[in-house]
Design goal:
Elements (H helix, E strand, L loop, with lengths): L4 E5 L4 H15 L8 H6 L4 E7 L2 E11 L2 E9 L8 H15 L4 E7 L3 H6 L3 E9 L2 E9 L2
Parallel strand pairs: 4-5
Antiparallel strand pairs: 1-2, 2-3, 3-4, 5-7, 6-7
The structure holds coenzyme A.
The site of coenzyme A has 20 residues, from helix 1, strand 4, helix 3, strand 5 and helix 4.
């Protein structure tokens, strides 16, 4: 398994722009949409996580402060590198980062295709599936120490 080096990158800087492109390619283009200027400017108070193998960006996610939790969103692994454990490494990094901020719960709105991935990494489903962007999603949450 390749070792991924994670960094928290700054909103508006080149590393953030590169992450926006990766998640736009993975999450939005297949739906025929992209991130609006308004959505992107609202991200300035969020934590932007990027993972690299050598100098290549391979995974990205955003952690949004929500009370005493973080909401994890916009999770995307480079297509050709999926199912090699990079997503699992990202989730562990996000937990470590959360602990450093004294935050011990992360939740997300998981696409139905990603529910097994989150479940295998300790997240449990809450409530029923709901529609977001025309895709069934499940709220999933993990609390840790
Ligand atoms: C969902 C996603 C983030 C998971 O990332 P990933 O890097 O593929 O995740 P992992 O490799 O850690 O685990 C995924 C699968 O690979 C398997 N796996 C884990 N480590 C592995 C390894 N070393 N070798 C082979 N397979 C492995 C896991 O069992 C898991 O199987 P599952 O899909 O049946 O649960 C990624 O597939 C992705 O970006 N998908 C498109 C965008 C998306 O859906 N984002 C989430 C929106 S909520």
């Amino acid at each position: 398994m390749s070792k991924v080096v994670f960094r928290v990158v700054n909103h508006g800087f080149d590393e953030w722009k590169e992450a926006v492109k990766l998640r736009e390619d993975v999450l939005r283009r297949p739906l025929g949409s992209c991130f609006s200027e308004e959505e992107l400017s609202l991200e300035k108070d969020h934590f932007h996580i990027s993972g690299y193998i050598d100098k290549d960006l391979v995974v990205t996610a955003v952690l949004v402060p929500k009370g005493d939790c973080f909401k994890m969103q916009r999770v995307a692994v480079k297509e050709e590198l999926r199912s090699t454990g990079i997503g699992a490494q990202l989730l562990l990094f996000c937990e470590d980062f959360s602990r450093s901020k004294q935050v011990y719960t992360i939740y997300c709105h998981a696409r139905d295709s990603a529910v097994n991935f989150y479940a295998r990494n300790g997240y449990h489903g809450l409530g029923e599936y709901f529609d977001e962007d025309g895709i069934p999603h499940l709220k999933m949450k993990k609390t840790f120490h």
